[in-house]
Structure formats: C-alpha cells, structure tokens
UniProtKB/TrEMBL annotation:
Family: Belongs to the LysR transcriptional regulatory family.
Pfam families from the UniProt entry: HTH_1 (PF00126), LysR_substrate (PF03466)
CDD domains in alphabetical order: PBP2_LTTR_substrate
Name the record gives this protein: LysR family transcriptional regulator
Keyword check for Transferase: no
Length: 298
C-alpha cells in the first residue's frame, strides 16, 4: 500500500468527483482511477459505490476514509514534532483574519505568562482551510466562530473544543454632523450596505440572518467586502451599514465613532470556540489548554 493512495482518497472525498480529484492530484483521470482501484485491491473490498449517480463511499470506504485522515494527520504531526524536546517548537494556531485581530489577541495576552519566550505561529485562513489545517495535523489549536449555519465538520471522536467566548455581529453606522446615526435600518427606504462575500463565514451568517427575517430592512449594496477590517473602515467613513463583531466595534460605539442600530433582534449571536485534537500535545501546550478552560469559567 502506498501513502499516496490514502492522499488520493482524501482528495476524492474533498473534490466530489474522480475528474476533479485527478486534477487536484496532478494526474490524468485514468491514472487516478487506477490508483483508487489499487487501494480497493489492497483493502479487499470496493470503497466507492459505482452504481450511484454521484460520488458515494461504501461503508468500508467511509471507514477507510476515516483511517486515512487519522493516519495522515499522525504522520504529519510526527514529521513536524519530532520525539524529544518540544519546548522550543512553535504553537501553531489556525484562525480567521477577524479573530486574529480581536479575540486571539485577547487570548494571547492572557496566556502570555505560560507562553513565555516560546514562538507562536498564526495562520489566518477561511474556516474551511483552518479546519483542514487542524485535521491534517498542521495546527495544534483552531480558533473559530461557531454557529449552526456554518456547519463545521469536525469528528468529535478526534477533536474537542472549549467555548471561549460569546460574540455578536452588531449593525453599525457612522454618525452624521449632528451626532445621530447617518444610516438607519429601514423597512421603507433602502440604506447603503457593506456586505461580506459569501466565501466568508460572516457573510454566510449575515445572509442567513437577513433571509430568515419576516420583514428584513431594505438595503442596497454599496461595497462588498472580503474582510471585516475593510467593512469596519468603510463604516467609519460613513459609506454604509456593516454588521461587525462586537469585540471590534464596542469601543467605537462607546466613543461615538459608530452607532449601534436596531435592537437585539437585529444582532447575530454566535460563539467563539477553541478546537484541538484529542491526542496528547506537548506538556506546555496542554497547560495552555487547561488555562484556556479556566478562562472560560471566569
């Protein structure tokens, strides 16, 4: 059995078709099919239901897929964290750009006495990519938003989490010359809006929130943003209404640089979670996890 066959199986599950998976693995479609059949021959059973009209793994295929994920993650971890002294190895954290600026900074400040002079690597990605980093053993912790709409798919048998904080997206507007909100959430007159792209977790949350309202506010797109940082800056400049994390804009609202609009029904409430693999991590990283758990109970 070759290691690349397991990588092929994971690529197939991610891509959804043999053709796309072959392209992702930089081989021809027939060659990729032969490698999947070679894995099936080694396993002694079909892994794919070839009678199905779309990709469907057999029960044995699902079991093999799970085993492949665990094996590749373990190998990746062993490669990055050799046996011996792990005190000087960096703590690897995967998160989003918005959380890196807000709640990660708060968490790091609280954990600094335990971290000491040890290096920390922060990788900022969209949620699907941070999940892959954690699953593949390329991250020790993942800091992410959680909401049922986001459908975060992590196997609870392999990963656990802490509810690190509660968060909310607030609709905000810059003030006008009289200090009142420049824009309003109106059901009659459209207001300029600063939406997120739906590739962002915040974009999917906001889209679901507006679609679920019986009488949503009338909004017209002014500038579509691919980051909360951009939406924040545009909101401060008065370009439109933005739904921004409370942790990012609470100080602006207290200082009068922004106005919170609407009421609690116009907020989007979500959790911030810290994920980790269930396997044992280096002792000082385990100590960080315990301290993070204590932080949530305060």
């Amino acid at each position: 059995m070759q290691l690349k066959w397991l990588e092929d199986l994971l690529a197939l599950a991610e891509a959804g078709t043999l053709a796309k998976a072959a392209q992702q693995r930089h081989v021809t479609h027939p060659a990729f099919g032969r490698r999947i059949r070679a894995l099936e021959a080694w396993a002694g059973t079909p892994l794919i239901d070839r009678a199905a009209t779309t990709l469907r793994f057999t029960p044995e295929g699902q079991a093999m897929l799970e085993a492949a994920r665990e094996a590749l993650a373990a190998l990746a971890t062993a490669r990055r964290r050799p046996v011996g002294d792990t005190e000087d190895l960096p703590l690897r954290i995967a998160t989003g750009r918005t959380l890196a600026r807000t709640l990660f900074a708060t968490w790091y400040a609280r954990m600094a006495p335990l971290i000491g002079s040890r290096p920390v690597q922060v990788s900022t990605r969209v949620v699907q990519e941070t999940t892959s980093l954690l699953e593949n053993g390329a991250a020790d912790f993942m800091l992410t938003y959680f909401h049922p709409v986001l459908a975060l798919r992590l196997d609870p048998r392999r990963f656990t989490h802490l509810r690190l904080a509660d968060e909310a997206l607030w609709p905000v507007s810059a003030p006008d010359d009289q200090g009142r909100a420049l824009h309003a959430l109106s059901r009659r007159r459209p207001s300029p809006w600063l939406p997120y792209t739906t590739s962002l977790a915040l974009g999917r949350l906001l889209e679901d929130h507006l679609h679920s309202q019986l009488k949503p506010p009338r909004l017209r797109i002014a500038i579509e943003c691919d980051s909360a940082d951009a939406a924040h800056e545009f909101a401060l400049r008065g370009f439109g209404i933005a739904w921004l994390p409370r942790s990012m804009v609470a100080a602006d609202c207290r200082a009068g640089r922004l106005h919170k609009l609407g009421d609690r029904s116009d907020e989007i409430r979500l959790e911030v979670r810290l994920y980790r693999p269930r396997r044992r991590l280096p002792a000082w990283v385990e100590a960080l996890w315990e301290a993070s758990a204590d932080m949530t109970s305060e």
